[in-house]
Amino acid sequence: MIAKTAEVNEAATRMTYSRIDLDADGATHFHDHGVAMTAGVYVAGIPLVDSAAPLSVTMLTLSRLEPGYTSDWHPAPRRQFVFVLSGAIEVTVTDRETRSFGPGSVVLVEDTVGAGHQTRALGSGECLFATVAF
């Protein structure tokens, strides 16, 4: 848990992630979201750390895609964050927008019904990623 201190500068800093979600017609789209972060005590005795509000999560899965991996259209198996650890993927949503995500990328996938999205591994190496469901 992140405890705030009286000396903390309350000016928010941000990180961003891409989000795949559904519209009312069931089409998927990308949206970019910023995360408000506040400096606070993470561990007593070390400098303040910028952190967002904690989320309760239910599962962590580590996965690997072989070079050349390509999926058909599919919905996400659950609402989850995808953290690309190495390699790169390309994701296409039903409005035909395509984005590439490399190491350090974070994507919130919420298209758990409907046509979903397509995923393709990029480059000649494997892609390692972690998913965190909530």
Q: Can you describe this structure?
A:
The chain is mostly beta strands and 134 residues long. It is built from no helices and 10 strands. The protein has a single domain, classed as Jelly Rolls (Sandwich), CATH 2.60.120.10. It is 0% helix and 50% strand. It has a 7-stranded mixed beta sheet with strand order 3-2-1-8-5-10-4, with no helix packed on it. The chain has a 3-stranded antiparallel beta sheet with strand order 7-6-9, with no helix packed on it. The radius of gyration is 17 Å and the shape is globular.
Task: For the structure shown, list the relevant keywords.
single chain; 134 residues; mainly beta; Jelly Rolls; seven-stranded mixed sheet; three-stranded antiparallel sheet; 50% strand; globular; disordered N terminus
Annotate the secondary structure layout.
Elements: E1 13-22, E2 28-40, E3 49-51, E4 59-65, E5 80-86, E6 88-93, E7 98-101, E8 106-109, E9 117-122, E10 127-133
Parallel strand pairs: 1-8
Antiparallel strand pairs: 1-2, 2-3, 4-10, 5-8, 5-10, 6-7, 6-9
Low-pLDDT stretches: 1-11
CATH topology: Jelly Rolls
Q: What percent of residues adopt helix (DSSP H or I)?
A: under 10%
Order of strands across the widest beta sheet?
3-2-1-8-5-10-4
**CA-CA gap between termini:** 18 Å
Number of strands: 10
Q: Quick check: average pLDDT?
A: 91
Structural class assignment: mainly beta
Looking at the chains present, what oligomeric state does this protein adopt? single chain
Quick overview:
The chain is mostly beta strands. It has strands at residues 13-22, 28-40, 49-51, 59-65, 80-86, 88-93, 98-101, 106-109, 117-122, 127-133.
